[in-house]
């Protein structure tokens, strides 16, 4: 925990859980990406945390932005960023939203099928398109489904179709899975991308860009490689598969940009057992799946938790949220070790919560307020 977050929480009087994000850490993370991949453009994945303060900081540092909706595009434009620093990276877009983005000046769009290409050709003529290809996501703690992307063999047909409709077939994108610890994942994905480049060249169309997506991890309970290690692995893979004719490249860090910059303060509401001889306690917090901790789904992300009783004897417990919904259980399959002396009313700190917490918090499920957010 940063000293700035510690001081802020010490002075905070309000009740209820909150997340606090330290902009100094976000700045350090951006500079690490820029240094580790100096010839690659950073497009921050706005969906990770769209707080205006974060967007404004990144705009001032020269970041570009990966947006999933017109709403996110408008948030970015509000910082003063120009539209040529925006990629409309969602492959599922209403035609009217494509038209609105085009009116704002956005000219870079993601696709993964000919149907999406045709929408863009109708309302955003002359725009650049890049086709997302599927990755298996092996090694990721939060693997992605087949919802986004197409088989690499299909990508040339999608891009050529766009070319024939007057769009600019610009490149290929992929996402190796969120919280990706497998450094070879980018090597395999770049091999696929190079194959699409080669096929397009045979068709007389020169692609120019590879969007290498996100997947860069933040540290939860396990150590992860540093950004410089990823940068070296990615550069080696680029040289391996593209030789001396390197394409322009984009990365879309989200979790890796803001994850370790945020911390949630929560409170223990109840500690109980399900039977007289039950050895496993149930610890209920005033925050759960519906108010910021959705990524505990299937216990995929295991957040570090600090308590005022750290150092005391620990025992496994089930950790759950406060709502009247049976799925609001954070860790049960693999119980969480917490101090036996933990008491009702104790404050706990949940670390590495800067990404995908405020954006996953419901508006008012069960009458609980959305997760309060502070950016310092």
From TrEMBL:
<feature type="modified residue" description="N6-(pyridoxal phosphate)lysine">
    <location>
        <position position="47"/>
    </location>
</feature>
<comment type="pathway">
    <text>Amine and polyamine biosynthesis; putrescine biosynthesis via L-ornithine pathway; putrescine from L-ornithine: step 1/1.</text>
</comment>
<dbReference type="InterPro" id="IPR000183">
    <property type="entry name" value="Orn/DAP/Arg_de-COase"/>
</dbReference>
<feature type="active site" description="Proton donor">
    <location>
        <position position="324"/>
    </location>
</feature>
<keyword id="KW-0663">Pyridoxal phosphate</keyword>
<dbReference type="GO" id="GO:0004586">
    <property type="term" value="F:ornithine decarboxylase activity"/>
</dbReference>
<dbReference type="InterPro" id="IPR022653">
    <property type="entry name" value="De-COase2_pyr-phos_BS"/>
</dbReference>
<dbReference type="Pfam" id="PF02784">
    <property type="entry name" value="Orn_Arg_deC_N"/>
</dbReference>
<dbReference type="GO" id="GO:0005737">
    <property type="term" value="C:cytoplasm"/>
</dbReference>
<dbReference type="InterPro" id="IPR002433">
    <property type="entry name" value="Orn_de-COase"/>
</dbReference>
<dbReference type="GO" id="GO:0033387">
    <property type="term" value="P:putrescine biosynthetic process from arginine, via ornithine"/>
</dbReference>
<dbReference type="InterPro" id="IPR029066">
    <property type="entry name" value="PLP-binding_barrel"/>
</dbReference>
<feature type="domain" description="Orn/DAP/Arg decarboxylase 2 N-terminal">
    <location>
        <begin position="26"/>
        <end position="258"/>
    </location>
</feature>
<dbReference type="InterPro" id="IPR009006">
    <property type="entry name" value="Ala_racemase/Decarboxylase_C"/>
</dbReference>
<comment type="similarity">
    <text>Belongs to the Orn/Lys/Arg decarboxylase class-II family.</text>
</comment>
<keyword id="KW-0456">Lyase</keyword>
<protein>
    <recommendedName>
        <fullName>ornithine decarboxylase</fullName>
        <ecNumber>4.1.1.17</ecNumber>
    </recommendedName>
</protein>
<dbReference type="InterPro" id="IPR022644">
    <property type="entry name" value="De-COase2_N"/>
</dbReference>
């Amino acid at each position: 925990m940063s000293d700035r977050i510690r001081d802020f929480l010490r002075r905070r009087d309000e009740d209820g859980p909150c997340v606090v994000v330290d902009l100094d850490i976000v700045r350090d993370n951006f500079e690490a990406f820029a240094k580790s991949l100096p010839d690659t453009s950073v497009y921050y994945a706005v969906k990770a945390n769209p707080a205006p303060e974060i967007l404004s900081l990144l705009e001032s540092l020269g970041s570009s932005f990966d947006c999933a909706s017109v709403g996110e595009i408008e948030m970015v434009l509000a910082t003063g960023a120009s539209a040529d620093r925006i990629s409309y990276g969602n492959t599922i877009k209403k035609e009217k939203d494509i038209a609105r983005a085009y009116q704002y000046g956005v000219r870079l769009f993601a696709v993964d099928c000919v149907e999406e290409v045709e929408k863009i050709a109708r309302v955003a003529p002359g725009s650049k398109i890049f086709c997302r290809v599927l990755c298996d996501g092996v090694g990721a703690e939060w693997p992605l489904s087949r919802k986004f992307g197409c088989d690499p063999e299909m990508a040339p047909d999608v891009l050529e179709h766009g070319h024939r409709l007057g769009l600019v077939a610009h490149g290929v994108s992929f996402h190796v899975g969120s919280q990706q610890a497998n450094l070879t994942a980018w090597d395999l994905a770049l091999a696929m991308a190079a194959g699409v480049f080669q096929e397009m060249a045979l068709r007389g169309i020169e692609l120019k860009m590879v969007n290498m997506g996100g997947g860069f991890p933040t540290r939860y309970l396990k150590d992860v490689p540093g950004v410089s290690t990823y940068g070296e692995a990615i550069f080696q893979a680029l040289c391996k598969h593209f030789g001396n004719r390197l394409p322009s490249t984009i990365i879309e860090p989200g979790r890796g940009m803001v994850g370790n910059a945020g911390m949630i303060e929560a409170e223990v509401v109840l500690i109980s057992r399900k039977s007289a001889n039950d050895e496993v306690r149930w610890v209920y917090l005033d925050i759960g799946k519906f108010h910021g901790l959705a990524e505990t789904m299937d216990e995929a992300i295991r957040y570090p938790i600090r308590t005022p009783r750290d150092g005391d004897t620990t025992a496994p417990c089930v950790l759950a949220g406060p709502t009247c919904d049976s799925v609001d259980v954070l860790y049960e399959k693999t119980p969480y070790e917490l101090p036996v002396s933990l008491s009702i009313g104790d404050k706990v700190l949940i670390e590495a919560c800067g990404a995908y917490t405020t954006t996953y918090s419901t508006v008012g499920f069960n009458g609980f307020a959305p997760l309060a957010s502070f950016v310092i």
